[in-house]
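Researcher: Re-running this chain for the archive, since the previous output was lost when a drive failed. Same request as before.
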Amino acid sequence: MKTIQILSWNVNGLRAICRKGFVDWLQKTQPDILCVQESRVTIDQVPKEVQELDNYHIYLTTAEKKGYSGVMLFSKVEPEKVEYGMGVEKFDVEGRVIIAEYKDFTIFNVYFPNGKSSPERLEYKMNFYEAFLKYVNKLKDKGTNLVICGDVNTAHKEIDLAHPKENEMYSGFLPIEREWIDKLLDHGYIDTFRQFNQDPDNYSWWDYKTRARERNVGWRIDYFFVSNSLKKKLKSGFIMSEVMGSDHCPIGIELIAD
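Model: Regenerated structure tokens:
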């Protein structure tokens, strides 16, 4: 049975993680597709060892603000079509979305906004959420198989962070943010990790400053969602918490190939 492995990783800066062995890890792991968030590079800033990868087609989008945001796609198979952004200028200027169409599915690689810095940024985040859901639902309603992955910047349920009670009033675990994930799932999408693992203490982000990773005091804020149409093709959903180099770790799914 042939499978397709798709990974997603907020690398907290491509240049920084390349100094920590990113290319060696990629060549050893050999995912079919890797979605990267918070790459924070323009095309001319991509490290040489990444540019020289000959087994991946590489795509990236950047924010107007230098050294900020950005997503990248590494794909062994050339997508049939690649688009950048959702066609909404106030969101697209931050370089948060790559859409790649393949024969059997379309991938959304997304770095969702963080709402912690101010009420204005929380409003921006919620507006982004709503615009995104509207965008993907149009495709899903046309029968497109969708894979959505990236740093969602929200923990869905109490099981998804180490200290839920202490964080109920902070962006990342606010009721309105969590309700949006409920809404996404209600619209016909699957939280792939929870299809296979209902255990606590499974996180994808840990605070650097408090050395939280050593104590596994984390948050699960990185996700793979797939449309219900792909449920039968979903073979596994997992978190690669052993992989170091960023304050996030990679997550992944395997889909049964046609």
